[in-house]
Design brief:
By secondary structure, the protein is mostly helical. Helix content is 42%, strand content 0%.
Length: 62
């Protein structure tokens, strides 16, 4: 099993939302990335300290 934690989260989402399609579950998992740090400041790119873009901070929280 390559990613049991993601499979488990998908199963929990499916149980909570039985009408959601596999694409909707994937979207819910992939659109949960944080855009602010713990001090509510926008995330910065580690390479040059500029404000990060969606490509710099990733696709999902898990």
């Amino acid at each position: 099993m390559s990613c049991p934690h993601i499979s488990g989260l998908a199963a929990l989402l499916k149980a909570a939302h039985p009408t959601w399609s596999p694409s909707a579950i994937k979207s819910a998992l992939m659109t949960t990335a944080y855009i602010h740090d713990n001090s509510k400041s926008p995330l910065r790119d580690a390479a040059d300290r500029s404000f990060s873009t969606p490509w710099a901070h990733g696709a999902g929280h898990v």
